[in-house]
Amino acid sequence: MAKTAKFPFRTPPVPQTVQGLPVDVLPARRSLAALQTTAATPSLSIRGLRDLADVAADMIESTLGNRGSRRRWVVREAGSALEVMRVTRGASERLATIEDGAVSGGEPWRRDFAKADIVELRLDPETIVRQRFTLPAESRAFAAAIVEHRLDRLTPWKADDVIYGYTVRPGAGSGEPIEIDFAATSRDIAAKALERVARLGRAPTAIGSAADPASEPLAVDLLGGASGARPTGRHLALRRLCLAVLPLSIAAFLGTTLLQAKVQGDLDTATAALDLQRRAVQSRIANDDPAQAIAGLLATKTMDGATFVLIDRLSRTIPDGTFLTDIEISPTLLHLKGRSTNALALVPILEGEAGLTGVRFESPVIREANGGDRFDIVASREIPAPAAEPVQP
């Protein structure tokens, strides 16, 4: 990956713009105070969402790779003229040669050029310094610092007046020395070339040497991904897609989290109830005779004591005109709530035909406007006693 030095101009020129793009796309170092001032903007949250979408778009692009045709435009210096070339799938096509001072025309290629994703500015090789040198494999992590430290010896210009880039080429095997492909030029030379390209209505996304074949991408990019470079159309489309999907993803995440919390709460409640029953059974067995306790527990599981049998009996004995709105059944109690045309007649019915005992009204009967009664009845369930074991002779 190409790296780029970030140094300010000695006398910053007034930036010109073409279609909202700065002519001066060369990276510049800013102080910590300036960075803090820039960061404290009202659109911080919006920028954060956009940055998050950019990260997601980059991940998708890295997965997609170079699928599909990637068209590049190359603007190459040729003396006092600029050669405009279009490269599609490795095949280059020269579209125009524009002399300095030439009046802009309405050529068909200009519209596509202004919307291009990748525009490479190829400088005259005579204005670029190219060097290659090797470093020990262990120094790969410090390549940027080493190159910056050697700027005064690698270029004829002062470090503040240089833009540069480099590419790290790994060795043939593990532990082999690495090779640094270095290129640099002065800021004045790059600025003049940028002004010439700006007249075509487009700022470049990369700067390199015209000695590199136009059919191949730049070996070393002097911009190295500077902030002035525009994202590709595919990246912008992926960013918009990620921004649209992001709220749905957050909503789905929150929904699944709440559902998981609810399910976990229900599971904890059921576990606590089972644990309570287990301790109750253990306490009953510990305090009573184990044989009698087990027999009593088994008696509650007979047909006569089964809950579904009690419900069936109630459905057959409760008279017409009586409706239950709430029923609560425990091992020893039955709690009924509902409406009836004659609530007082329910007590003898439940005690006789339903086989309940201690039937009573939990609260007074409420007479409703339509003539019916609202009732709340509590009764005791009779659990059959365990059958006596036969006496051994």
Architecture overview:
- Helix content is 36%, strand content 24%.
- It is built from 10 helices and 16 strands.
- It has 393 residues and is of the alpha+beta class.
- The model is unreliable at 1-25, 28-42 and 225-229 (pLDDT under 50).
- α2 (44-64) packs across α7.
- The chain folds into 3 domains: 3-231, no CATH class; 240-292; 300-380, Gyrase A, domain 2, CATH 3.30.1360.
Whole-number radius of gyration?
43 Å
Number of strands: 16
Low-confidence stretches: 1-25, 28-42, 225-229
The SS-based structural class is alpha+beta
Determine the fraction of residues in helical runs and give it as a percent range.
25-40%
Q: Specify the overall morphology.
A: elongated
**How many DSSP H or I helices?**
10
Number of self-contained structural domains: 3
Biggest sheet statistics: 5 strands, mixed
Question: Looking across the biggest beta sheet, what order are the strands in?
Answer: 6-5-4-7-11
Strand content: 15-25%
Distance between the termini: 100 Å
| Mean residue pLDDT | 76
**Succession of helices and strands:** EEEHHEEEHEEHHEEHEHHHEEHEEE
